[in-house]
Every structure is written in structure tokens, then in C-alpha cells.
Amino acid sequence: MSILDQIRERAKKNLKRVVLPESEDSRTMEAVEYILDGKIAKLVVVGDEGVRKSVKSKNASYLEVIDPNNYKDIDRMASEYYEIRKLKGVTPEEARKTVLTDYLTFGAMLVKDGIADGFVAGASHTTPDVIRAALRCLSIDRETGVVSGAFLMEVPNCVYGEKGAFIFADCGVNPSPNARQLAGIAVSSATLFQKLVGKRPVVAFLSYSSKGSAEGELVDKMREAVARAKEIAPDLLIDGEFQADSAIVPEVAKIKCGDNPVAGKANVLIFPNLDSGNISYKLTQRLANARAVGPLLQGFRRPASDLSRGCSAEDIVDAVAVTAVRV
């Protein structure tokens, strides 16, 4: 059974409530039917009564459809959102209009208020839209200190990582993270790997250099990030800087890095910037036929998951299952 199939099974055993605010997207509604039929999660779908009528699953009792225009606590929510945004110049009237008409914000506020455990969006919204909703509505984990976007990657017939399972980060949020941010991203990603895969995370900071084989500003940044990460989480298995092959291929690691405990064994890959992370996950997904779930937003106290606008209904199902087991 694949890692993602295992995650779906885990989600079924401890049902959580996940918000899907994009009811106007046909892929979302296709995923709703599958999730309900498989009893993978309880769902809160933001939409009108027509959404409920369109759902044919026999397990419709696991579905709650909430229309902001009929929501009993809309006044309180509007007031709460105003308090969050008033320092940015938002008026009470604008706050009320936002929670009534912007399903993404409304869904994030449902998570903030404890009506749901997490949310999944992005099929019809851009990543910046989803991140803004999370930043405005969800509490940030101050211990982590940085919001980032990680991908759970599962590469078929792969002997590297944890039998083909990896976390790639940051692939969705920070264009050019500094050393301090990279250290926080690494620690969050290690925790995420442990939570999702259930195995010990082995964290590699990636570069065009392997342990001093080259020099440069980006190499220096990754070395500093390694040192900071080890200070934050001394019990984690973390090292770098590594070229990608040195990080995951034991035979190459032996030649380039000797008996380094991380080299050749990494299952959590930390990229130096958003360019390299985003390009790498998409190439891996397309060329290796890998399943890619994310960006899984890290750094918040409640789980939230973004989607690619090119996602499939199956991608949404996977994102919901992953979000559920992160609670």
C-alpha cells in the first residue's frame, strides 16, 4: 500500500472536519463525492443549497453545506474579521462584505473559529490568494517563525528517500528565504514528514555544492542554515550542503561525502529558493509520474493545504486526507 493510500486509511479511522470553499469548481465536487463515499473525512462545503442537492453520496450525513448569507454567526464573524484587518484600513462594512462574498476567507474563518479542523483550496484560486487567507485568518506558530509550503512527494518504484516518499520544501511560499527562515522550514518539514510518513526524517539542505566542493553566496547561506537548524533541533538528523545526488544516492554520497550520516539517506529536501523548489517538484511529478500533494502550508497552528490550479479531483482527495491526519 502506498504512503498516500495509508494516509487515506488513517484519515478514515479518526474523521476530521475539513473545509472546501471552492464549491463552484467541478473537480471539488467530484472529490466531495469520493471523500464522502470513502468516509475519508467530514466535509464543510461553502456554498448554497444547490450544492447539497447536487451531492448524491449515500454518506451525505458527513457533509455540511454552509451558505455565508444564511450563517447564524455571520455578524460575529464579520466583527472578528474586522478586528483582524482594521489596522490595514478595512472598514466594518468591507469586512462584512468580504466574509459574505469571499468563500475562501469565509472557509478560513470557519477553521479559525473551530467549526472545522483545516481547509483545502486552490483549485480556482492562486497560491497567493490561499496564503493570504491563511495569514489573515489563522494563528501563526511563533515557535516555527516562518510560513512555508511543502510537498509530500511519492515517486513510484523508487529506492531513494523512504521508499520513494519525500518532503520537498519550500516549493510554494518564500521566493528567497534567508538562513534563519530555511532553518525554520527544515524543522517544520521534518515534523511534517514524521507526521505523514511515520518514519525518522533525514533532512538535507540542497545546493550546487557538496560539503565544500564549491563556494558562493548561496552555498554560504545553506551552510549557515544548517548550523541554525542544528541549534534549533539538535535531536534531528540534519546536514548539508549537498548536491541532490549526494543527498539521496548512497553510492554517490559515499564518494563525495564519506560516512556522513545524512548523505545518501535524505527523505526531507530543503531547497535554497522558490525557483529550485518549485521547478524540482514539478519535474519530479511529471517526469517520474510522482504523486505530489501540496503545497501543504506550514507555520500555522491549524493545517491548511493549497492546490495547483491544474489539480485533479484525486489531488483534492489526497490533500483532504493529508490535512485530516495533520490535525
Plain-language structure description:
The protein is of the alpha/beta class and 327 residues long. It has two domains: 3-139 and 313-326, Rossmann fold (3-Layer(aba) Sandwich); 148-287, Rossmann fold (3-Layer(aba) Sandwich), CATH 3.40.50. The protein contains 13 helices and eleven strands. Strands 3-2-1-4-11-10-5-6-9-7-8 form an eleven-stranded mixed β-sheet, with helices on both faces. Strand 7 (202-206), helix 9 (217-232) and strand 8 (237-242) form a beta-alpha-beta unit. Helix 1 (3-13) packs across helix 13, helix 4 crosses helix 5 (92-101) and helix 5 (92-101) crosses helix 6. The chain is globular, with a radius of gyration of 20 Å. The model has no long low-confidence stretch (mean pLDDT 94).
List key phrases describing it.
Rossmann fold, 2 domains, eleven-stranded mixed sheet, globular
